[in-house]
Amino acid sequence: MISTFAVFLCTMTMAAAALPSGMTAIDIKPMVSVTERLVVISRTHTTDTTYRCHSAKEKSSIGDNKYIYNLKARNSALQYISGEVTVQLEEIPGEANKYRATYTNQQNTKHTLTLLQKDEHLYCFVLYVEKSTGQQGCELLTTVAYKDQIPPACQQYFKKQCTGAEAKLYLNDCTYD
């Protein structure tokens, strides 16, 4: 179960190096202020996963730009697996007052998450994820309330900027607490 959970942790990540052409980082702090569970609708990295119903929820702030997040996903046996990670916000190199998020999983894989797009109400987000294993790509997330009606600002950005193979992780029978 630990190795299976580690694979899931690899799904909730963003960018450390230079972003692909046409992508610009924005400050991730507004996303961290969202208290509702965030649903991963689709992603363009680690597309061979058998896990679905991925989500993340901030549990607490532990100070100094550190947060505890609960990550959850459903495996192929339809069981939900859940665990916590410590997420650290760090200033994006060369970008004053712009932050990204990082965490390292149990397999010592560093995940860097960079926010690329959000809507004005903070109902949706597009992240660029880069793992120290070399895997990278986008994730489209919404709050639980907007999982079935993705705001155009994020949906259009994801379709235009995040090319390549796509894994659809949200299914109609997913449940979120």
TrEMBL record:
The keyword Magnesium does not apply. One of its GO terms (biological process) is symbiont-mediated perturbation of host defenses. Keywords: Signal. Residues 1-17 form the signal peptide. It comes from the Eukaryota. One of its GO terms (molecular function) is amine binding. InterPro entries: Calycin, Tick_his-bd. Gene3D superfamilies: 2.40.128.20. The keyword Signal applies. This is Lipocalin/cytosolic fatty-acid binding domain-containing protein. It comes from Amblyomma maculatum (Gulf Coast tick). The lineage of its organism: Eukaryota, Metazoa, Ecdysozoa, Arthropoda, Chelicerata.
